[in-house]
Write the structure tokens for this entry.
Amino acid sequence: MKRRTFLAATAGTSAALALSAPSMALARGLDTEAQLRSWFADTYRSLEAMVPESGLPADNINLSGDKPVLTENTSTTNIGCWMWSTVAAAGLDVITEGEMQRRLTRTITTVEKMERFHGFWVNWYNTFTGEVLHEWPGSGAKVNLLLSTVDNAWLDVGLRIAEYAAEPALAARIRKLRAGIDWSFFYNAYDAADPVAHPGLMHTGFKVEENTLTPYHYGALVSETRMAGYLGITDGTAPSSHYWHMLRTFAPDAQQEMPPKGEWVTRDGVRYFNGHYTYRGRNVVPGWGGDMFGQLMPELFVPSAKLNSSWRTTLTHHVLGQRDHGLIDAEYGYWGFSPCNVPEGGYQEYGVQFLGISPEGYCSNTDRTYVPYGEPMPAPSAYTNGVVTPHAGAMALMIRPKDAMDNLRRIARDFDSYEDGMGFYDSVNVGTGKVSDRMLSLDQGMAAAAFAQVLKPGLLQRPFMKGAGARRLNTTLAKEDFGL
């Protein structure tokens, strides 16, 4: 669906009004700042188009038909994305301060009415009403009620950013909402007598109907899930030692993507294996699957690369690893691998297996060309149906701006992957040229935050850089030494 069709289809709605401004998306000759501003404005317009009167963003928007179709489901992460993107839009003069306040107020009004358990929100709500989803739209399949630790973290991030930007009366309402959030609810305190059952990590969630915490924990440090720990440390509801209990790699004797290098160290009283991998001659602390999302999403808000050179090194090596995998290993000509919509339909985790500790790893192509450790690399032709997602390239702007800018421009230029007035579609099969017909509010929200961070550094990071809680977290991050 092209922009003219989209505007006609949404005429009479707030989305149509918001999309009426002209776009410079692919105009020739734009300098880097102007291009980024254009990309941000268009990306924010796609998010506007996903938000009905409830103020809650749909999980995604389908643009394959004659008119756009919003999904009936939304998640806590999506809501956080909408709030921080709206604050960024005002900070970059895409919308007025007054419009930002109105939009945040509408969203908060609905969030205040949404059912919570133990101070947290379940994963899925109805986009249009804010009611808990008990059946999946369309199929009628039962939805198990889960309080996801990481998804609540992203909602909390959005709430903190909104509170920081809100006028006093609205900020007070947000503080009241946030008063019920206590990250110790998910935290499993370390017990040296039984470190397997009590590892000093966050549970992955809470099963509402079974009234029990999940038996699993978020272990990998360099994953998007670290944000929950960051929030707990900031609030004082999780100890700083939690940071050191998170895994750099598995211990050397554990099954994982490749044998790690490193040594056992002790910091702040916690003994752990300070491991890393080596990929294409660069040492890197792996994430879970080797995707950009896990490595860089927290960096949008907590600037660890600015606070610590060791963090800067590993994130740089991850981005360079993704670049080299796309351009050299697979010879796609493009890069940026992260979970996203499959262009042909569905959703899949994409990444670079050598950059993740999961024994199975994420692959950069839908056909999952996996290379067991120690075996020779296959010919580039083995990587059939490679998929890149622009939100991954957008986040790489924070680390390798020139490389990332060139990559995004080529994705926009070489495929019909950019919708004027709406931004990048979610993904591209670089082998066939097939472009996803959807935009996901999560991925658009990450891209918007990345563009904003490059255009106006610190715009969305202020709540995490000031105050005693921020100092507690940042002091811990500053001590990191990955031994790279």
Q: What stands out?
A: Residues 1-29 have pLDDT under 50 and may be disordered. The first helix runs from residue 3 to 9. The chain has 16 helices and 22 strands. The two ends are 47 Å apart (CA to CA).
